[in-house]
């Protein structure tokens, strides 16, 4: 597990009241997902069940993409689109990660298929329900509503269908409103996101259509060949807004308030293989029974180009960090009873996700655990109390994030400033020097700074010289 998966793992194992309390302060956007994983991990906590919902959701999304292609075009288009979606590396990455993004993709594909069915005479309420659940899994999926609106405008649907869509979509947005209000107060969680530029858009284009080379250019040309023609409901009129509108909307909004990340618009990727498959169908046009086989072989050939990415994605190099390795390092170096301080407090995630490596260790700054305090990583002592606790130590292990020991870092939190100040002013790296770096995290032993020698005693003052009479 890397850090985001570790959050899922430790939050989902809390009780429902503890999860509910946490969501009032942090991570409300993932609340429904945490509750779902709570039920899943109740069977048996572990990495396999943590990731199993994402695997199933990605497989379901591929099937739904195929169903859309078959319904709006013909079976071979559905076959090609579903297979191409399944082998796309970005899909594969989030299919085996314990976060909500693959489930959001399945929900978006299901809502889009239900939209098409409703426009052909089926009930509208399943569309509204699935759309609402998808947005509750991640609120930025609400941009899918805009994509569907563009589809309906292009298809020139009747006033009656337009009103029914507006009612279903409006109900979904209304359900989402309380979550949006709560999560707005938690916007600091994405304060690290930069303002996206042209590079972000190009990177996403390559992620949707291929990492580069002949696969990318072939997919791009086929997608262009599928651009919508007559103003009616076609596969291209559904797929193009789905692939384009959510990313462009989030990129535009992020120019004013950065909140863009590729994974937040992953659900829009499904429109790209549909366009590619529709373009291939238009280019080939033949009715020969060998054409579906030829398209399938082309997808298999593309998959062979992606194999190195898939292999790397399933090694430790495919993760930004490995918290189990950090925990193992602490278990090897820190003895039971020794004191450790996490700088900053978010570094405690290794202990929270893999407590076995920190068993018996004194967490000097911790006042209340995460479940008890309704936080992710626990509540720490106040600045004054923490200073007294640190000054009472002669030996201290510091587990620090990469930036925490650099001189330009100046934390706003008073407790973090106390940690940094006391460690740098009252302690020195232990002798012999003991420092270990693992997955970007530094574990360093500090000992109390020796007192400065007082020097030789001052000579007594000379007796006063007798003055002249």
TrEMBL record:
GO biological process: lipopolysaccharide biosynthetic process; response to iron(III) ion
Translocase among keywords: no
Recorded superkingdom: Bacteria
Places the protein is found: Cell membrane
Source organism of the structure: Streptomyces griseoruber
Organism placement in taxonomy: Bacteria, Bacillati, Actinomycetota, Actinomycetes, Kitasatosporales
PANTHER family attached to this UniProt entry: MANNOSYLTRANSFERASE YKCB-RELATED, UNDECAPRENYL PHOSPHATE-ALPHA-4-AMINO-4-DEOXY-L-ARABINOSE ARABINOSYL TRANSFERASE
Transmembrane segments: 22-43, 49-70, 77-95, 101-120, 127-150, 162-183, 204-227, 233-253, 265-284, 290-309
KW NADP (keyword) present: no
A GO term, aspect molecular function: pentosyltransferase activity
InterPro entries listed in its UniProt record: LipidA_mod_glycosyltrf_83
Membrane protein topology class: Multi-pass membrane protein
A cellular component term, taken from the record's GO annotations: plasma membrane
Protein name in UniProt: Uncharacterized protein
Biased composition (Pro residues): 453-469
UniProt keywords, alphabetically: Cell membrane, Glycosyltransferase, Membrane, Transferase, Transmembrane, Transmembrane helix
Region (Disordered): 446-469
